[in-house]
């Protein structure tokens, strides 16, 4: 049950909660209640209740509506019964609350409905009238001598007209949601219209009030209003009010008047009064009545000003300069480098915009201006850089210095300007910035910058530091260091030339891929490096050499052969990661050639292992470039490699052997694989056996138990560790245990043969269908009938199966993008997941392939009725009901019930009558004509009559003409759908 704390008789109520009528009985409690930290009910709730209750209709008087509130001809009727003591007391309590808010109009307008605001301001005008008809606000301008009015009357008149203008602004800018209170409806739009009609009178009245010559004004406070009781009448003690200066009173009027002019886009006049208000506030000691925010006032003044001076904020000067031909922009940026007021993103935008305009010829400036801006921005950016930075700065800035004849001069000139700042942190960051630039610049440019006479450089670096910077070599690697901790000991020690040369040689080896150049570099390094503990792999810790090769090569003595072969193999692995297989094979061939210098057993083993690495690279290339790769003798080499797997001598790596099996599986060598038995590669062999069986029995025999038994435990989370024993009793082979999901995914994602892919996808689809157990949401695939049922007690999460199926399907479509079955399965998967727009995309892509992009009719055996049915349901879910109605016609047996239901939907989100030209079924056309006639939709009806009158749709035509007309419209409709879903 809803509890209204302002209504008596509702429960439960907190012990400290006051009921509104308690303040009516004892008005002195109100001030005590309002001064609480969190009064319950709040001041706004009480005010609304007081005002609403003061408008309650006695049984013997008529109802008051919203029109009465703004119609002066009905004022007498309105106040007829509100002079009774109860209502007078409620009005006085309302006055106390607003005076407690210190007459803040923003609080009043944001917390009280506008209809009750009108009641309040009219009550205030009535309260101060004293014989004058102030409640009739249209007669305010007829008052000839405003100076004859009392302070409370001037205050009430000013408050009313200020409220009129501010309420127009606030309720126009923020459409506050209206709410009703009893019989009084908050009709904001009607009230605003009437207020705007009298806004000119309010403007004139405020201007007249500004001309009053008084030294001070008295503003009512909470103690001013004394509610009546049984013994005494209503009374107001105006002398108990707050005395404010004339400047404070006038500035508040100016501010509200100027805001209204600003709202009306009369910026020149608004600026005059904003500036006058600003001048009054300069020497003003504001009281609680003063509600002007100086920051907001300054913003208004700046917005209205058409002139920017040096006294304006730097940000304003910057924005003005960017809009007026970039005058004095360098001066502004120089000052900002010291005070840092302009946001960095604005400075970066300036740099990019100016470079663009100069390149396009839209702006002309001195050739050095852009470099000045680059330098000033770089200094500003460096001044706020954190301690952890990259040693070398981006090359683009140094490049700009190099290609400008006055680059060093401009760099030093702008640097000199920022050296006036004595902040230690700032100078440390600048020192870091200069060091970065000098380390990146060429030697001759460094000498130009560091030559004698540049005091700003000597302020940052001592003579010894400058000498060391001049002697640094040009090729210094880019490394991440904490410069803030190292700058304090920047003294650059003498560098050993031999170590530098070694470092440079190692760096060149890291980036060199030409075998002959690598040989020369290694020869030089071998001559210089006599350390017996040196390992060539230490040059780059990312280099990898297969473990069997590494164990053989490491045993060889250090020398050119060992270094060269290790680097060639490591770099080939690097190229494989980049899918640059040709260069990887070239490097391996070179390394294999190197081993031919010696015919010993050790070198023969190394050569054989390198040969298998070359085969492995070629198999990966075949897998990556499927359909574009010339197989050649790859199959025979795979078979030869597999002959060594179970030998007692040298054997290939497990990854190579498994890749051989996968390659043979992908080229259709299933019979060869089923005649071999490799304990460690059961999954690809089981897939090969299933492919062979499916092709032999055409999918009519349930013969896929091997793959089923291998895959199910992978997804079974309830399969305990105690059950994970070897599948064939061989404890030596780790892959004989239950497969991990990563091993399974590696095999699945390596499949390229269409038959193998369909086998795997049908297995995953079968599991998903079983777990979902909804006939309307089944995935449709060939070979679903070959799989056994899932045994009881298995805990397989549906989400895991769906994710794996989606990943495998996406990878398969990369290599078979035109495979109809895969495209339809992708659509089915999106459909059951509720991604209806995506499902439409994949179904339509399948139709595009079948119809040769709508050049010929769609064949039924390729696109079955269930596809159209699911497309129809997708459209209905997306509220594209016209599309769904037409798709009903594509089925073998037309579903007229659904078609008529969809055609009669009035909230369809598709193109509606734009699709009527695609309809070929007379029954649907006649229903649509009937429906639009019933709804009196004449335009739709005329279009349908024109469509049904087409000659090719005549009922007397022969079947061939009807079939041709239907096919043409079907293809046009499908083409329109593809433009929406496939190629939006």
UniProtKB/TrEMBL annotation:
A GO cellular component entry from the record: chromosome
Residue ranges of domain INTS8 TPR repeats in the record: 505-981
This protein's source sits in the domain of life called: Eukaryota
Indicate the secretion signal residues.
Answer: none
Q: Does the keyword Transport apply?
A: no
One Gene Ontology BP term is: snRNA 3'-end processing
Sorted keywords for this record are:
Chromosome, Nucleus
Q: Where in the cell is it found?
A: Chromosome; Nucleus
Q: Name one Pfam family in it.
A: TPR_INTS8
Q: Does the keyword Nucleus apply?
A: yes
The record's listing under InterPro entries reads:
INTS8 (IPR038751), TPR-like_helical_dom_sf (IPR011990), TPR_INTS8 (IPR057980)
> What family, per the record?
Belongs to the Integrator subunit 8 family.
Its name, as the record gives it, is INTS8 TPR repeats domain-containing protein
């Amino acid at each position: 049950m809803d509890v209204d704390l302002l209504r008596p008789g509702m429960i439960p109520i907190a012990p400290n909660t006051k009921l509104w009528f308690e303040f009516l009985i004892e008005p002195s409690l109100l001030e005590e209640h309002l001064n609480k930290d969190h009064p319950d009910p709040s001041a706004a709730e009480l005010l609304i209740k007081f005002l609403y209750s003061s408008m309650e209709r006695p049984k013997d008087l008529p109802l008051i509506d919203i029109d009465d509130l703004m119609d002066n001809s009905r004022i007498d009727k309105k106040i007829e019964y509100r002079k009774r003591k109860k209502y007078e007391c409620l009005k006085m309590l309302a006055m106390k609350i607003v005076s407690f808010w210190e007459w803040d109009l923003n609080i009043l307008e944001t917390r009280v409905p506008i209809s009750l605001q009108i009641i309040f301001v009219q009550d205030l005008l009535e309260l101060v009238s004293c014989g004058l008809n102030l409640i009739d606000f249209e007669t305010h301008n007829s008052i000839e001598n405003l100076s004859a009015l009392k302070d409370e009357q001037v205050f009430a008149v000013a408050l009313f007209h200020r409220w009129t203008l501010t309420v127009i602004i606030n309720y126009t800018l923020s459409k506050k949601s209206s709410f009703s209170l009893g019989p009084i409806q908050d009709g904001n739009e009607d009230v605003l219209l009437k207020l705007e009609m009298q806004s000119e009178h309010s403007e004139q009245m405020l201007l007249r009030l500004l001309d009053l010559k008084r030294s001070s004004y008295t503003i009512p406070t909470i103690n001013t209003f004394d509610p009546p009781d049984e013994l005494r009448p209503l009374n107001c003690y105006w002398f108990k009010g707050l005395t404010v200066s004339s400047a404070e009173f006038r500035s508040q009027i100016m501010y509200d008047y100027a805001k209204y002019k600003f709202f009306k886009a009369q910026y020149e006049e608004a600026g005059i009064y904003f500036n006058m208000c600003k001048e009054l506030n300069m020497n003003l000691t504001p009281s609680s009545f003063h509600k002007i925010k100086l920051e907001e006032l300054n913003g208004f003044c700046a917005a209205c000003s058409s002139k920017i001076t040096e006294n304006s904020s730097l940000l304003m000067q910057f924005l003005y300069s960017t809009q007026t031909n970039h005058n004095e922009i360098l001066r502004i940026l120089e000052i900002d480098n010291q005070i840092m007021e302009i946001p960095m993103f604005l400075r970066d935008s300036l740099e990019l915009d100016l470079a663009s305009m100069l390149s396009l010829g839209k702006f002309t400036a001195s050739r050095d201006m852009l470099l000045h801006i680059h330098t000033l921005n770089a200094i500003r950016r460096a001044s706020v850089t954190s301690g952890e930075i990259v040693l070398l700065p981006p090359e683009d800035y140094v490049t700009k210095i190099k290609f400008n004849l006055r680059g060093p001069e401009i760099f030093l000139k702008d640097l000199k300007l920022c050296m006036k700042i004595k902040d230690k942190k700032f100078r440390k960051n600048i020192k870091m910035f200069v060091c970065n630039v000098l380390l990146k610049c060429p030697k001759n440019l460094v000498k130009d910058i560091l030559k004698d006479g540049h005091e700003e450089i000597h302020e940052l670096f001592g003579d010894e530091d400058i000498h060391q910077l001049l002697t640094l070599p040009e090729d210094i690697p880019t490394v991440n260091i904490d410069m803030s901790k190292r700058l304090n000991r920047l003294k650059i020690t003498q560098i050993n030339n031999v170590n530098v040369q070694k470092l440079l040689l190692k760096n060149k080896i890291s980036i060199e891929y030409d075998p002959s150049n690598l040989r020369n570099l290694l020869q030089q390094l071998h001559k210089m490096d006599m350390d017996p503990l040196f390992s060539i792999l230490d040059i780059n810790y990312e280099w990898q050499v297969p473990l069997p090769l590494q164990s053989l090569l490491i045993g060889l003595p250090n020398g050119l052969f060992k270094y060269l072969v290790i680097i060639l193999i490591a770099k080939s692995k690097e190229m494989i990661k980049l899918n640059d297989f040709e260069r990887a094979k070239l490097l391996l061939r070179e390394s294999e050639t190197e081993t031919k210098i010696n015919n010993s057993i050790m070198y023969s083993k190394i050569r054989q292992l390198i040969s298998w690495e070359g085969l492995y690279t070629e198999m990966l290339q075949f897998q990556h470039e499927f359909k574009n790769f010339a197989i050649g003798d790859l199959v025979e080499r795979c078979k030869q490699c597999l002959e060594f797997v179970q030998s007692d001598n040298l054997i290939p790596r497990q990854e190579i052997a498994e890749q051989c099996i996968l390659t043979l599986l992908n080229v259709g060598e299933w019979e060869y694989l089923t005649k071999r038995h490799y304990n460690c590669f059961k999954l690809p062999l089981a897939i090969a056996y299933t492919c062979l069986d499916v092709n032999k029995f055409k999918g009519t025999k349930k013969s896929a138990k091997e793959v089923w038994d291998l895959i199910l435990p992978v997804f079974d989370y309830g399969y305990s560790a105690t059950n994970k024993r070897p599948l064939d009793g061989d404890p030596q082979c780790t892959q004989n245990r239950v497969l991990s999901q990563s091993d399974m995914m590696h095999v699945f994602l390596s499949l390229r043969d269409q038959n193998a892919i369909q086998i795997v996808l049908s297995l995953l689809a079968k599991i998903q269908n079983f777990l979902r157990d909804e006939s309307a949401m089944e995935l449709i695939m060939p070979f679903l009938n070959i799989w056994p049922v899932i045994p009881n007690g298995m805990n397989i999460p549906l989400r895991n199966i769906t994710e794996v199926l989606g990943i495998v399907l996406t990878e398969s479509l990369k290599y078979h993008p035109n495979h109809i079955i895969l495209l339809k399965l992708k659509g089915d998967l999106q459909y059951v997941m509720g991604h209806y727009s995506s499902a439409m995309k994949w179904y339509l892509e399948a139709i595009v392939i079948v119809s040769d992009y709508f050049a010929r009719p769609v064949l039924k055996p390729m696109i079955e009725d269930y596809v159209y049915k699911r497309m129809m349901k997708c459209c209905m879910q997306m509220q594209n009901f016209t599309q769904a109605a037409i798709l009903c016609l594509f089925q073998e047996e037309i579903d007229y019930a659904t078609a008529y239901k969809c055609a009669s939907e009035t909230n369809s989100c598709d193109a509606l009558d734009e699709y009527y030209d695609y309809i070929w079924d007379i029954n649907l056309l006649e229903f649509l004509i009937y429906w639009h006639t019933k709804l009196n939709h004449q335009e739709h009806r005329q279009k349908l009559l024109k469509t049904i009158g087409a000659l090719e749709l005549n009922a007397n035509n022969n079947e061939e003409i009807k079939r041709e007309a239907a096919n043409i419209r079907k293809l046009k409709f499908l083409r329109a759908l593809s433009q929406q879903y496939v190629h939006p």
